[in-house]
């Protein structure tokens, strides 16, 4: 006579990608949330500052342009898609896009060109599902803040920079001191999309008598 010991295994199978909570958000500084929380409560640090530093660290915050152009090339669109994915994690945060040019051309023309570049970025982020109300302002510095000091054409100067600018709906005071809560929410969401719960029944061994 044989007695089969059958185990009923409940396994939560994630998607084919094998999502695990935290795998996409912990860059080695996850434990700093408590320190940030304390600093914000003490007024030494703000929610906007902390999120701004994290945004600049985790995704490319600028895209570059061809000479005398405000058209987004494939590389720029890829970077902006990464920005949009990051921005969607924080519905309470607003962003500002700064437009820049190189030093070729007049100041007036370059300020207009920088603005058109910023507008192109905002339009693309909006196409990725980011509300325009969260893109706080379109700002052009034109040729006044070059990365490289040269009067020649230089792609590095022809850019936009996306930065965290504030908190939607005046919630800054509410969120300061609660950075750890926001990061924990981010940690939990990193495991999404949640999978269905599957039941796995299989024999794990047997006993003979």
From TrEMBL:
Keywords: Cell outer membrane, Membrane, Signal
Matching InterPro entries: Bact_OuterMem_StrucFunc, OMP_bac, OmpA-like, OmpA-like_sf
GO cellular component terms listed in the entry, alphabetical order: cell outer membrane
UniProt-annotated location(s): Cell outer membrane
Top-level taxon: Bacteria
Domain OmpA-like, residue spans: 52-168
Keyword Membrane: yes
Pfam short name (any one): OmpA
Name of the molecule in the record: Outer membrane protein OmpA
Organism field: Cribrihabitans marinus
Lineage, broadest ranks: Bacteria, Pseudomonadati, Pseudomonadota, Alphaproteobacteria, Rhodobacterales
């Amino acid at each position: 006579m044989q007695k089969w010991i059958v185990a009923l295994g409940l396994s939560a199978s994630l998607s084919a990608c094998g999502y695990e909570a935290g795998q996409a958000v912990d860059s080695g500084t996850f434990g700093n949330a408590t320190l940030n929380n304390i600093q914000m409560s003490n007024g030494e640090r703000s929610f906007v500052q902390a999120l701004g530093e994290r945004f600049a660290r985790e995704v490319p915050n600028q895209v570059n342009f061809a000479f005398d152009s405000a058209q987004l090339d494939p590389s720029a669109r890829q970077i902006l898609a990464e920005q949009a994915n990051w921005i969607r994690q924080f519905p309470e945060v607003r962003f500002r896009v700064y437009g820049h040019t190189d030093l070729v051309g007049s100041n007036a023309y370059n300020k207009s060109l920088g603005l058109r570049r910023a507008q192109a970025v905002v339009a693309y982020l909006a196409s990725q599902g980011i509300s325009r109300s969260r893109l706080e302002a379109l700002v052009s510095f034109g040729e006044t803040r070059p990365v490289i000091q040269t009067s020649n054409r230089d792609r590095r100067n022809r850019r936009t920079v996306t930065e965290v600018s504030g908190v939607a709906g005046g919630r800054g005071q509410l969120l300061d001191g609660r950075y750890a809560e926001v990061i924990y929410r981010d940690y939990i969401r990193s495991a999404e999309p949640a999978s269905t719960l599957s039941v796995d029944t299989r024999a794990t061994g047997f006993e003979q008598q």
